[in-house]
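U., I forgot to send this yesterday:
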Amino acid sequence: MGAHPYGARAFHDSRPMTDGLRSPASQTGAEIPHARKKAVLVLADGMHFEGIAFGAATTAVGEVCFNTAMTGYQEILADPSYAGQIVAFTFPHIGIVGTNDEDIESITPAVRGVIVRAYAGTPSNYRALATLDRWLKRHNIPGISGIDTRKLTARIRATGMPHGVVTHETDGWFDIAALTAQAKAFPGLEGLDLAKDVSCRQMFTWNETPWRWNEGYGRQTAPSWRAVVVDYGVKRNILRLLAGSGADITVLPAQASAADVLGHQPHGMLLSNGPGDPAATGEYAIPMIRGLIDAGLPIFGICLGHQMLGLALGGNTRKMSQGHHGANHPVKDLETGKVEIVSMNHGFTVDRDSLPPGVKETHVSLFDGTNCGIRVEGRPIFSVQYHPEASPGPMDSHYLFDRFAAAAKARI
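Result:
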């Protein structure tokens, strides 16, 4: 698991990248195929933005959100948590470092579409193996560039995440009324269980450890404890950090039962990130989580896993207006006073006022005060809303993996 067909070339090859088109040195805007095609973004209220097409020549419908990260666009687009969504980047230039076969969080991206101010079609990075345009085509994801992303972002901030359509057309003619109706018909993410769509279909094991500069990913060959990860759309770097902490990792599908988990005799269980409405996924996940709470197993939840742990403990979740999507979010640890700079990607939040006695709020967002962490008093059960594996800090939140590993090893 985790082997890359390009091997060492991803790090050391200085030969020109061809990308199936022509080398970066010879590419010009006129030579890039997407420059001859028009695209449009149409929102459910009829607002539309005309631009230039890149990526796959197809149509995508979804919830439109904005992401404020300045780097890591490939990791963002490969995050399964973006299932059902069209991502608009607020950073103006996207595509600068190209794409490769290592900076991915899943094999099959679930994001619906991509919106950028300016697409950089000539990558400048020694690890680049392909342009973003080609990567999107490979995964059948449409993109649109050349639009006013500031205006779009301001609209989302003011009125919430709209439903929208991104589509391409060679002759540049679009039926705006029909596309508006298509956006209106999108059912939205509330009440939608998307975790089962992005989860693995069968159990697998994982031993790939975190990336090291000019060495690539390593292998965990001498694990010291056992972890079960329930996959609601797990990001690969979560698994890597677990393996790096000494875990022997078994990954189970989203609909696994408590008996399935306990059958692997784990020392700890991680509830992964994922897309969709936690209440919908919770219909089958909550009984499993409660069974493992009763069994006394250490539990660590991340993002969707945090929300579902909150539900299993008796709390509630609610849909957010614009959500949190970015790599510059300040979160305060209420128990230590420390402020962490974290990566976030969520459109639902745990309602702190619904948390029962014995469940303590541990982290809050310094942007809007929403809940970002909980723990069960006196028990090794905790979770965070953000992504401690994403490392924008860069290691502000890695202590959470150490805490989980320590709790799990205490059961050996």
